[in-house]
Amino acid sequence: MPRVLAIAGSDPSGGAGIQADLKSIAANGGYGMAAITALTAQNTQGVRAVHVPPAAFLTAQLDAISDDIGIDAVKIGMLGDAAVIDAVRSWLEKVRPAVVVLDPVMVATSGDRLLQESAEAALQALLPLADLITPNLAELAILLKEPAAADWAEALAQGKRLAALTGTTVLVKGGHLQGGQPGDGPVHADDSDAAEGGHGADAGCPDALVNTGGLLGRETVVVPGEWIATRNSHGTGCSLSSAMATVQARVGNWEAALREVKPWLLGALREAAVLDVGSGNGPVHHFHHFHHMQQLTDGEHGQHSPAGHGPAEGEFAAALRASASGDLDAIYALDFVRRLADGTLPEHEFAYYLAQDAIYLNGYSRVLARAAAIAPTEAEQLFWARSAQTCLEVESELHRSWLSTRPTAPTLGPVTKSYVDHLLAASVSGSYGVLVAAALPCFWLYAEVGSTLHREFLAGGAPVGHPYSDWLRTYADEDFAAATRQAIAYTDTAARRASGSEREAMALAFRQSSGYEVAFFDAPRLYA
To answer: How far apart are CA 264 and CA 285, in angstroms?
Structure first.
């Protein structure tokens, strides 16, 4: 569990600032800590007052935390004045955290000034110490001393200029482009934040990671997304940056982190209205992905159900499938999947995918063998043991029929390593339910994608000369579909036997694995 320190201002309404950071960190599987830089008097309608405590007290907070607790990632938000910025910079230079995400909070969309103009030079000096900078379009323009970008192309160009200026990665967010479409103009007023920078619907349109140093594998990585028409976007930018810090500490890859965070934030915006908080810009729903799970794990009076008194048959599985819908949409939108389906995928990307798949299956077989060892019934033990054996047989066949004829280095890729490490961690958690939930997306998402590709592209016969038609047919194998249905059923049964807290852990493990499935399909584009 990543230990993540948020350094930011406080929002007493709970939607933005340090309160949003802590919710976001927890929602993405981290342990949140907080050092307060500023106190605000605000609500969903706007900021009424800002008080910045002495910088020496912030230093005392930071030292107290780092003297005692290991810090895996840091998210920096509202800083207030030059003295506070200098205190944070001095601490960063001393502690050198592995992951630093800086959300340069300057001016709320409502017009409220959240950083003194005299402090802008100090903020500029802080930027190179960050690993990722997440400005909204207004902040991006201020940092460059340029007019705000009017379209997506200019936003990307500004992101590249800031990346070159700071020597770090910049996340360019299209949430303030109307409707989330490039070139359509500014976002509607009811999509803005009332605090910490007014980031609007960050998850509702394309976002891009930009780094002129090539640390991402290429200069610009664009991740598409749907725009959500909502006024409940208070704290979106805070939530996005703290989620990125948390997931990056876990997966070690910025694009993989963004592809995991983006569907979560999209759901947080889509489900925000159910919170019914305030009469202005309401907060996003950080725990939307647990909302349905909570209904299944809690009793009528809000108490966690004891083990063996869980949801009805099929309810937990249905909730898991709903939580993976955004990841499936992301997979179908990937260049790798589209080009694999139509036969235009470059040979070297396919070879990389196969090589990583073989390495992954070797590790996955060990995880399934562990599931067999701790399964509570003989039928489950036999199923997981046979599945582990099948993984090894498929790996052997990959080497025999595909990899032996395709030159590729069998080097463990970063996404493969992160995914297998995640599964191995689940295998030593001591929970059979968490283990099978973590293993399930490799069955379920893989089977759904395969069935869809086969139905849409090969049902009427493969096009002449399609180089991957034989491979695509393996996706729709009925034996694998049957095994997937059995894996779903056993996971659902495990959830009904589990306690409420264990079901929550199962849901989180499943969602994390689903995010890794997206990253795994996209890895060839980055690393092949």
So the answer is: 10
